[in-house]
Amino acid sequence: MSEKTPSGPNPATAMQSQDPHFIDELVLPQLEELNLIPGRPLIVSDADEVLVKFIAGLETWLETRGLWLNLQSFMLTGNIRDKLTDEPLKPADMPQLMEDFFADHTHALIAVEGAAAALEALSKRAQIVVLSNIPISQRGARAKSLAAQGMDYPVIANKGLKGGAVRHLAASVNAPVFFLDDIPHNIASVAKAHEPTHRLHFIADERLAKLIPPSDHSHFHTSKWADARDFIEGKLSEEGF
Ligand SMILES: [Mg+2]
User: How far is the centre of ligand 1, averaged over its atoms, from the C-alpha of 162 (Å)?
Assistant: First the structure.
């Protein structure tokens, strides 16, 4: 689920975002400080709705603002409504709302069932990086919250589509790469930027998972970490890792 709003990006950003290799200037230094091991498989996982329960956490937090989420399509904009009047929040107010949500509630988001155990098992055969589109100011809070829930892995605060970052990471490992995300645009972006990446369309919240079909650019679709782990382990074995 995206925090993005339909209010268009500025022209410069729009041009950059069409470049499948684009990496935001705030992201590149974070990628470069990772110490990835060449030759070891890499799992790049999104956090919201993959490692942590984003929608459930958002619903809890919206209540404190007198708002609620009418989960009728795979979008936030237009579906967040006032509890009293039922008026949808204006698209122009969405960026600030999401910034407030991440500032207030990143630390409180609860791990998806089975995520920590699956990653712990997978970490015996692969290195793991979390690639999350949170504001960079929340990078530390996200890493701390994940570590406290058994997922102590490097966190990259990405901005924009994820293909460029995944391609960059893939180039430094030169081994099988896996990518998990709930948002089809990110999966398509990785398909374009680094086609060999094994792409998993993962949506933890089953209410949300019913609202969109599996991404055409994914190789596997699930809401369960046990299934994602089986898929990844199968591919690793097939490829001799
Ligand atoms: Mg997500």
Answer: 11
